[in-house]
Design a protein that fits this description.
mainly alpha; MYOD Basic-Helix-Loop-Helix Domain, subunit B
Length: 93
């Protein structure tokens, strides 16, 4: 006897492919993408190296900048842990 989630029966294909369903699904995805982009904009505003940049900065660069900024803050709080922190988080990619 297996324990876990029950499979949810899918809707008939005629309902899944209706234009109304696609419209709802697309709007939900656009809203999700908008929220992700807004979150990246907020993060970018807090990373000093990209705060004043007029150029578009990739999401990857924003994340890398945030990681570096956090590392710098950690090393300022406790300089003796700087080497350990860098070794632990070096392979973040």
């Amino acid at each position: 006897m297996s324990v876990g989630r029950r499979r949810v029966r899918s809707l008939p294909s005629t309902r899944k492919s209706s234009p109304a369903h696609h419209k709802i699904k697309n709007e939900r995805e656009r809203r999700r993408i908008r929220q992700v982009n807004e979150a990246f904009d907020k993060l970018r505003a807090r990373v000093p190296s990209y705060r004043e940049s007029a150029k578009r900065v990739s999401k990857l660069r924003i994340l890398e900048g945030a990681i570096q900024y956090i590392r710098n803050l950690c090393s300022q709080l406790d300089p003796s842990k700087e080497a350990k922190t860098i070794k632990k988080t070096k392979g973040y990619k």
